Amino acid sequence: MNKIWIIARRELASFFDSLIAYVIIIMFLGFTGFFTWLTGNNVFLMGQASLQVFFQIGFWTLFFFIPALTMKMLAEETRSGTIELLSTKAISDWEIVVGKFVACLLLVIIALTCTIPYYATVSQLGSIDHGAVVGGYLGLVLLSAGYISIGLFASSITNNQIVAFLIALLIGVFFHLLFDIMGFSLRGAAGQVLNYLSMRTHFDSLSRGVIDSRDLIYFFSVISIGLTFAQAMLSRRNWQS
What we know:
transmembrane helix; mainly alpha
């Protein structure tokens, strides 16, 4: 656990040293703030104190931002050979993967924490559903964790950052959009299975303030599978050497 935390702290510090963290946070706040407060169906047009607009904007913004965040995490280490250096320090592949996962997730949580003023402002407009707010933020954190695990897997199978970004986006679009569309198009068991695989289904449930064990199991399953696959791809280099 200590080694995981050391890796997580090192990666988180590298985000801020290279200004990636500031760019991600500023762009996230810019996108969500612009679409939440200034355009389209902004919070002032809803006629009620609610952060649903922000949660829906965050749902899409994080989908695009997270592959950009994770694309270099393992691909760059593999390209530069530093992944081998880490292995000589008696750090397991699992600890490397989880450490990088924790660093990415902490950066997303920091970005989400910066939106607390949104909640403070909206709560001044009227009676706000605090359960829906907690569920919405929990949904964004779990959604991000799922996409981070997918992004790390994509980054583990190539040493090219752009390829890792595109693979993560390609896998993500199935969970983010296509499973949802196909689930509504098909009837019977196939439709139910595809609907269950959709991130939208589980995120919408949480953002309404409904904490269902089925949604938690879904997100933790996606996270576990993504991290396990990433660890397996890293371990493959040991079999090949």
